[in-house]
Every structure is written in structure tokens, then in C-alpha cells.
Design goal:
The structure holds 2 protein chains of 2 kinds. Chain A is of the alpha/beta class. Chain A is 26% helix and 25% strand. Chain A has 12 helices and 19 strands. The chains are: A alpha/beta, B alpha/beta.
């Protein structure tokens, strides 16, 4: 039972010309299920891809699959986010596309995608249906890929991997975007396939793990360090830099009411995604928006950000103006800073870190204008504040996920807006980065900024949050104050 | 009705052909003000109609859709598009009398019927907007004298018009005011405001005229954009198969090659495209393209002549009257070509390989772009307009071929473009028959550099570079590309 399955010797690996892994040695034996932790940018993803044979490296990786085992003799890597293409083989999407009724049919349905996956991997569709049901995903089978939320994309990706059941399954941030219940379901499913003979390597800094995880390691300084279960990785504490001066001024809200919704309804054909929503957000309030995957959170936010075409058929006001009374979406966006997983995925792939951050001044998904001198210097200050100076001219999509997030966070706050809409801002961040960011949110909001925050992980919320709105199946389930730290 | 252009004296013909002004972004500082609070009614809700309407509404303007009674009662796609996006929808009778601006976004061939149907309902002093000048220029439709007639033509498919707008950018756009219909002198201000409403002002706006737009648009789409890309693709594919190259490979090399090659064109013009070849290959591609230019020039000139004289429109309108008999037959024939029927093979082709193994395609594209540009400029069209209608649009059409091959490319473009494309293709293939007998696989299908040591004569290379780089399409192109701030990259396969 204890012969090595994976044997890595003297692995060297560079990521965009910088050494990431150096002289790395690691042995995985049969029966071992690993958790791999580490700060952002330490090389977790690179190591996983090297084992799965997806990238070039120097050194040796031997994998000895069990020839008696009927499971596919494959080391299968599941990426930290779900990438897909439209029916013409392109993935040139924009983040608002899922609200565009006419764009629906440009991508495959979930069912067609699964059928195709099953055909390519010679799998039985009935098995997928069980997984789909277990992850509470059944009613989305006829939805198209572009319509899914970030959590739903993650679920689809998980269904495929669990269905495939390779001998070695490497999952990069499998909990990203999943609600609490889905995380639990995922853990039991992982336990199940592990008992069926699949070995696991999970890359995650989360704490709720499947019970079958029995080995722990941290990547630090380019090498794998075996640790115990309770070990908390060494997240390098960067010196606490002061918040740039230009962000310390409180924004001026000219209206008392920021968002006011009266019986708001959104439906696609027969499917109603928001039902009779009544909600008021007053200037300076700090809200937490919660709900399970698919409960309507993103749709609700898309109304506020001017991204949903059905906004015009509903009775609601933004910044004191009835929506559809002559304002442009750019007038609205000017007053808010937005971050969401979708915004990040579908962002202009040709933008550098610096361009992406500056684009926050113009609310564009890429930089299409010449910034002023002040805008450029403020961007540089913020880049320094987030410790991104050495990456500022790198293409943003070439950064590790955590660092990309930091850059997008900088983009969100750069114009010091009246309203911050943070849709799972800490997804992909390590614990230190999340704390650091939430502290910054607290600091910005202490000046009177209005906040709407979406987060599944109770341990990763800013302290300033004072109220919570909970959605369930498109309806407001509860609105309640939040007392000191949850 | 008679051809408007042909009624003009020569001086006025040249005047209108010569309207061409690349507008400075400072001209758009008034935003959408000229249309604010006005009632905008769009006639037709297809891809352009819907997506322009979504953008205009998101820019704070008041939009409704006027559809024919049958479309509303039959709940046709146009009705669904509009209502699913919560736009008010009504018949011509209900909505047009209220409209300050009527936007005609129906297909070319319906224009006369549509405009004649809406005009009686249009109020005094209102404005009629087109996105293509065919109806006014070629059919000579007369619009009531109190009505202002303008054109705003985004140079991209409707879905892109929307995608670029919500990204915070836009697509290059052409605007114009019809000199016979600008009674209050407000046409330009309204056209600019409309352009801001659709986001076009961020990506470069060319002020043109109805005449210049029609005559250059027809020429570009018939020759380089659709016609030559079709001819070049089919000839290249057939040659490879004839010479024993794997059909799947040949199909992929052509289908995706046009996109990869013209991607270089988009970023740095003919120069950048030719520079992707090795020095020996570049000199060869230059020689081949010069030969192609000599062979094809009379055909380009014939197309331009027929467009200027109205002969092209006349025969196409005859086909309209015959229920699109020719168009439909030619379309069906395109679907039957071997290239169309051979799916792209499951082979990996590297980005550079698309250049090295398809020297002939590079030569076709250089020859076609330069010929179209030269012929237009000789005919009195300004270089900026000629650039837009030749080099600028080539990558956009190539992108459609990469996604859908020729049959679907022809379905996506307008029927007018498609008709002209077939005319060109049918005349061009026999013209190139002798030339093609000399072509071997070193020009298409295999790496031209193979078995060569790569050495070239300095002075030969320098003079070739000089000719390529000093062409007017290059100098004007460099200037215009700089003005169109951000160029998006298309994914290569």
C-alpha cells in the first residue's frame, strides 16, 4: 500500500521567466490524500499543472498508476476557474453577457456540455445525473453556460471531475464560489470517490475539508514542506503601508437613499429569478448580501450596477433617481466601484496590471482612454500599496489568481466611490491577503462609503458590516441587523 | 426613382465622394445632448436594431420599436427581441407620429417599402436615420423636404456593437448628413449624439457622405473583403488537395489562416503582415502579389466602374425583382464547394506556420487590399474612406470565415455584399486559372523556407520593403490606427 504514486525529484519551474519552484522533492504514496497550502504566488498552481503534465519543467516527475485499478490512469487537474467557449469556439465574452437574452444561445446548455464531456471520456450519463442532483444543480441542466453564476460554473466543473474519477485528482481551489451547503456536499462526494480508489490533492487554504485528507503540506520558498493538520501556512506579512492619501477622504453622497427597490421582479421566460424584492440601502450603510448559489444575488447586484436590461421595467431608484429617467449607465457606474468573479474572468486579456487598475476610473473592462497625470500617479500609489509594483507591466491574466484579485480590488477602489459593491472579493486570496483587504474595506468605509458585500465565508468578512439581507430562491428571506462580529 | 448619384453634375459627384474627415474626440464633448428627451423609434429589431437600441437606452435615451403589424401579431423574432428586453413596441401608425428620430435598421432591400410606409406618419421637422446609404444613393429615394436625413453606420456586427459598448469601448463608426435633406442644419449634431449613444465615438469616427459611404462600401465588400477572401480560400484549398496535402489540414490552414494572417494586418498593416514572413519568403510573396495585382487589376476596375455608374445596383435590383433567383442559386453553390464540405482537421497548426505554409494567402491579401485601396482612390474616394473599406474591415470578415467558413460568412454579411461577392468570385477564378497552374505546394501547404538557406540580396530586400512600406494604405493606416486607441486581439486557435 505504500509504494510511491508520485515521485518528484529536483523539480525546477519558472513562471513567466521567474523561478517559482526550485529543487523541489515530494513523494505521494498510495492511500495518501494531500492538502497543499501556501500564500498566493508560491507556485501551488504551477506544481499541480506540472504533475498533470500540462506545463514544461526541469527535473523528474514519476507517476506510477495502479495497473489493476479500473479507474482511468490519469493525473487530472481541475483549474481554479471554469473556462469555456461559445458554440463557435471563441471565449470572447463580456461579464454582462449573461443578462443579455439574445446571447443565451451562443453557448451550449449544461446538459449538452455534460453529454459531450461524457462522450469524450466514455462515461455513463446516469452517473453525472446523480452528481448533478447531489450538488443541487439539476434545474440548471437546460440553462446555457453563459447564464451560470460563478458558483454554478464551479459546480459544473466539479461534476465533470467527480464523474471522470481519475486515479489522481488534483483540484485547485475547489471551494471558490461555493455556498456553505455545497462545500459540505463536495466534501462528502470527495470522500466517496476517495474510498473508490481516487487519490486527492487539494489546493486550498480553507479549513473545512473532506475527512479523508490525511497529509498536509505547505509550499514555501519554492519547496514542499510537510506539516501537520493544524499548521497555518506562513503568509508573509508585508509591512503595513498606510492607505494612500487620496482614499482617505470620505465620498460625498448627495442623496440619503442609495438603492430603493419596490417590488422588483426579474424573469427569463417562465423562470423567475427575483420575486417582489423590496430593499432600501441608505447612504453610509454597510450591507452583507447572502444566499445560496443561484439564489439571485448576482442578478440583484446587476440591477444596481446598471448591467441588467430588465432594470427599465422595474420600479427602483439609484442615488435618488428613478432608473430609466434619462441617466446613462455610465452616470451610475461613475459613483460605484464593483468587483465580481465574472468581471475578472471576462476582462480584456491584453490589459496590463496598471492598465486594468486605471480602467477603474472609466468603469471599462480594459483601458481604452488616456488617463490624466493625476490618475496615473494615483494608480501607482495604489499599486505600491497592494505590493504589486514589480508586476505593474505584466499582463493581468498572467498573474497568479490571488495577485490578480488584488489588482482588481485596486481597480474597484481607485476612484474612492460612494458605493462599493464587492461580490466575493476575497475569492482566491490567501488568509493574510483577505484580512488585509477587509481591513482596508473597514478603513475606507469608516469615511461614510456605502457597502454591499457578498461573501460565503463567515470568517472572511469586514468588521464594519452592520446589516444582512438574505435571499432564497429569488426572494428576500430576511433582513436583519448584524451585531458585533459574526 | 432614379439613381441619385447619376443626377449630380460631375463637380458635385466629386464633392460628395470627397467628404472625409476623421473626427477628433473633442467633437463629441456634448455627448447625447442633441437627442436627450427626444423620442427615438427604431424600425426593425434584428441584430443591429436590437443592439443599437440597448446601447442607446443605456446612454439615457428614449427608445421604442416600430414593427409591422404582422411581426407583432405573429410574435416574430423582432417582436421577441424588443419585448424581452422591455422596450415599448408598436405599429408604424402608433409610434412614428410621436417620433423625433426614426431609425431605419431594416435590410437594404426593404428600405424603399419601409421608408414609403413610415414617411406619411413622420412629423414635420423630424429626422430619418439610415445605417447604409444604398436606398438614398442607388435607388434615389426622395425624402420629404422638411425631414432631416442622416447616417450612422457602426462598422461591426450588431453583437460586437453591444459587447464593445458594455466593455466601455465602442466600434469604429461612419456618420453622414444627406445634403438634400438638412433643412434645419441639425443633422450633424444629431448624428454625433447618436454615435455617442452607441459608443462609437470612443473607437474612431469618420465623417463621410451618403455617396462616399455607398460607393466605397460596395467596392470594399465586393472585392477584397468578401470576394477575394472567398476566391483565395477556395483556390488555395483546391490547390492543396490537388497536390496531395491532407484535406483536413488544408481546410484548417485556410479557414483559420485568413484570421491569423489578417490579425497582423490589423495591428500593423501590410507591413506587419509581410514582416511575419522570413526575408526570402517575403520577397517571394511580394513578387507573387505583384503578379496577382497585374492580373486582377482590370477586374477591380470593372467593379469600381459598375458601382460608380449604377450598373451594379441595376442588375442586383433586377435580381431582387426576380425573387433573388441568382443570389439563392449562388449561395447554394457556395455551400457545395469542397472547402466548405471538408471540416478543419484535428491537427495543431502553430501561429507562425499559418504564415510560413500559406505564402499564397499572404500574397492574395496584399494584392487585394492594395488593389481595392488604389482603385477606390483613383475613382475619387478619399484615402481614409478607402482604408476603412479595405484594410480595416478585412480582419473582421476573416474572423467570420474562421468561425463559420464561407457559406455562413455570406449569410452574415448583407445580401448586397453577398451578391457582389459572388459576382467577383465568378469572374476572378477564370482570370486566375493560368496563374494557378504554376502554383506548387511551396506557396501553399508547405513551409516555403524548407530547403532554403534563407539568404537574400540586401538591395533586393531593401527595395521590396520600401515599396511595401511607402504605399499610401500604409501611411494613412498608421495614422488612423493610432487614432483608434485600443485594438483588441482576436483569439487564435
Amino acid at each position: 500500500m505504500s509504494e510511491p504514486v508520485v515521485n518528484i525529484t529536483n523539480l525546477h519551474l519558472r513562471y513567466h521567466h521567474k523561478p517559482v519552484l526550485q529543487d523541489l522533492n515530494w513523494t505521494i504514496k498510495r492511500g495518501e490524500n494531500w492538502l497543499l497550502r501556501g500564500a498566493s504566488g508560491t507556485g501551488k498552481t504551477s506544481l499541480a499543472k506540472a504533475i498533470a503534465g500540462l506545463i514544461k519543467f526541469d527535473g523528474k516527475i514519476d507517476i506510477n498508476f495502479d495497473q489493476q485499478n479500473s479507474l482511468p490512469a490519469v493525473a487530472h487537474y481541475v483549474a481554479n476557474w471554469y473556462q469555456f467557449k461559445d458554440l463557435e469556439g471563441q471565449s470572447n465574452f463580456y461579464y454582462q453577457q449573461r443578462y443579455n437574452k439574445q446571447a443565451e444561445e451562443t453557448t451550449a446548455t449544461v446538459r449538452a456540455e455534460l453529454e459531450n464531456y461524457g462522450k469524450n471520456h466514455q462515461l455513463d450519463f446516469a452517473d453525472a445525473e446523480k452528481l448533478v442532483a447531489a450538488l443541487g444543480f439539476s434545474e440548471l441542466l437546460n440553462s446555457t453556460l453563459i447564464q451560470l453564476s460563478s458558483g454554478e460554473h464551479k459546480k459544473l466543473q466539479l461534476v465533470e471531475a467527480l464523474w471522470f474519477r481519475p486515479q489522481l485528482l488534483i483540484m485547485d481551489q475547489p471551494y471558490n464560489g461555493l455556498d456553505k451547503l455545497s462545500r459540505k456536499h463536495l466534501n462528502s462526494l470527495l470522500e466517496e470517490i476517495s474510498e473508490g480508489g481516487t487519490q486527492l490533492i487539494l489546493i486550498s487554504n480553507d479549513r473545512e475539508l473532506p475527512a479523508v485528507i490525511n497529509c498536509f503540506a505547505e509550499i514555501r520558498d519554492g519547496q514542499v514542506h510537510v506539516t501537520d493538520a493544524a499548521h497555518i501556512p506562513d503568509f508573509k506579512l508585508e509591512t503595513d503601508r498606510p492607505v494612500p492619501e487620496f482614499l482617505r477622504e470620505g465620498p460625498v453622497s448627495k442623496t440619503e437613499s442609495i438603492v430603493h427597490m419596490n417590488d422588483v421582479n426579474i424573469s427569463y421566460g417562465d423562470k423567475q429569478v427575483l420575486k417582489n424584492i423590496n430593499w432600501e440601502v441608505k447612504a453610509g450603510e454597510k450591507w452583507l448580501l447572502q444566499g445560496h448559489n443561484g439564489s439571485g444575488k448576482s442578478t440583484l447586484l446587476s440591477l444596481i450596477t446598471g448591467d441588467h436590461p430588465q432594470a427599465y421595467a422595474n420600479d427602483f431608484s439609484l442615488f435618488g433617481h428613478r432608473r430609466g429617467s434619462g441617466e446613462s449607465i455610465w452616470d451610475i457606474k461613475k459613483r460605484m466601484g464593483l468587483i465580481s468573479p465574472e468581471l475578472q474572468w471576462y476582462f480584456d486579456a491584453s490589459a496590463t496590471v496598471r492598465d486594468s487598475i486605471i480602467s477603474g476610473f472609466f468603469d471599462s473592462s480594459g483601458l481604452f482612454r488616456t488617463p490624466t497625470y493625476t490618475q496615473s500617479t494615483q494608480a501607482d500609489e495604489l499599486i505600491h500599496y497592494f505590493g504589486l509594483t514589480e508586476y505593474k507591466n505584466t499582463l493581468i491574466n498572467q498573474l497568479p489568481l490571488g495577485k490578480q484579485r488584488l489588482a482588481f480590488l485596486a481597480r474597484t477602489i481607485i476612484k474612492n466611490p460612494e458605493l462599493l459593491i464587492l461580490d466575493e472579493p476575497c475569492q482566491g486570496l490567501d488568509q493574510h491577503q483577505a484580512q488585509h483587504f477587509n481591513k482596508l474595506v473597514d478603513e475606507l468605509c469608516s469615511n461614510g462609503t456605502t457597502l454591499i458585500y457578498v461573501g460565503h465565508f463567515e470568517s472572511q468578512l469586514p468588521a464594519c458590516i452592520e446589516k444582512r439581507i438574505l435571499l432564497e430562491n429569488g426572494e428576500v428571506k430576511s433582513v436583519e441587523p448584524i451585531l458585533e462580529s459574526i | 426613382m432614379s439613381n441619385y448619384f447619376n443626377t449630380l453634375p460631375l463637380r458635385e459627384k466629386l464633392n460628395q465622394l470627397g467628404v472625409c474627415d476623421f473626427m477628433d474626440s473633442s467633437e463629441f464633448l456634448d455627448g447625447v445632448d442633441a437627442l436627450k428627451g427626444k423620442k427615438l423609434v427604431i424600425v426593425g429589431c434584428g441584430a443591429q436594431g436590437l443592439n443599437q437600441g440597448l446601447n442607446l437606452r443605456d446612454s439615457g435615451l428614449n427608445i421604442a420599436y416600430a414593427l409591422r403589424k404582422e411581426a407583432i401579431e405573429g410574435k416574430r423574432d423582432s417582436w421577441k427581441n424588443a419585448t424581452e428586453n422591455n422596450f415599448p413596441v408598436g405599429t408604424y401608425e402608433e409610434l412614428i407620429p410621436e417620433a423625433d428620430l426614426v431609425i431605419n435598421l431594416t435590410p437594404d432591400k426593404q428600405h424603399t417599402a419601409v421608408v414609403n410606409a413610415v414617411m406619411p406618419f413622420m412629423k414635420q421637422g423630424s429626422t430619418l436615420l439610415y445605417s447604409h446609404g444604398f436606398n438614398i444613393v442607388e435607388e434615389g429615394l426622395q425624402v420629404r423636404k422638411d425631414i432631416t436625413v442622416i447616417m450612422v453606420a457602426p462598422k461591426s456586427p450588431g453583437s460586437e456593437v453591444r459587447a464593445e459598448y458594455v466593455r466601455g469601448f465602442g466600434v469604429p463608426t461612419l456618420i453622414a448628413v444627406h445634403p438634400e435633406n438638412d433643412p434645419e442644419g441639425k443633422g450633424l449634431a444629431q448624428a454625433k449624439a447618436y454615435c455617442v449613444g452607441t459608443g462609437g465615438h470612443r473607437a474612431g469616427v469618420l465623417k463621410s457622405s451618403f455617396v462616399a459611404e455607398v460607393k466605397s462600401d460596395l467596392m470594399g465588400e465586393q472585392t477584397i473583403l468578401c470576394g477575394l477572401l472567398q476566391t483565395g480560400s477556395i483556390l488555395s484549398f483546391d490547390k492543396m488537395v490537388e497536390k496531395g496535402i491532407d484535406a483536413g489540414y488544408a481546410s484548417k490552414l485556410v479557414q483559420y489562416g485568413v484570421e491569423v494572417i489578417t490579425e497582423a494586418l490589423k495591428h500593423g498593416g501590410i507591413t506587419a503582415m509581410m514582416d511575419r514572413l522570413s526575408n526570402v519568403a517575403k520577397i517571394k510573396a511580394f513578387e507573387v502579389s505583384e503578379e496577382l495585382k497585374t492580373i486582377m487589376r482590370p477586374l477591380f476596375q470593372k467593379h469600381q466602374d459598375d458601382i460608380m455608374s449604377g450598373e451594379f445596383s441595376r442588375i442586383m435590383m433586377e435580381d431582387w425583382a426576380a425573387g433573388d433567383k441568382n443570389l439563392l442559386a449562388w449561395r447554394a453553390a457556395t455551400g457545395e464547394t469542397a472547402f466548405e464540405k471538408t471540416p478543419a482537421g484535428d491537427v495543431k497548426i502553430g501561429e507562425q506556420e499559418y504564415f510560413d505554409n500559406a505564402l499564397l494567402m499572404v500574397a492574395f491579401i496584399r494584392a487585394g487590399v492594395e488593389l481595392a485601396f488604389e482603385t477606390m482612390v483613383e475613382a475619387g474616394i478619399k484615402p481614409e474612406s478607402a482604408y476603412y473599406e479595405s484594410l480595416h474591415e478585412t480582419p473582421l470578415i476573416a474572423n467570420t470565415i474562421a468561425r463559420k467558413k464561407l457559406f455562413e460568412m455570406n449569410r452574415v454579411i448583407s445580401d448586397t455584399a453577398e451578391y457582389g461577392c459572388y459576382l467577383f468570385d465568378h469572374a476572378c477564378k477564370p482570370l486566375l486559372a493560368d496563374f494557378m497552374t504554376k502554383v506548387e505546394t511551396d506557396l501553399i501547404g508547405k513551409n516555403f523556407n524548407e530547403g532554403k538557406d534563407g539568404s537574400v540580396d540586401n538591395s533586393a530586400l531593401i527595395s521590396v520593403n520600401e515599396v511595401i512600406r511607402s504605399h499610401e494604405v500604409e501611411t494613412i493606416g498608421a495614422e488612423l490606427r493610432k487614432a483608434m486607441t485600443a485594438m483588441k486581439s482576436i483569439k487564435t486557435v
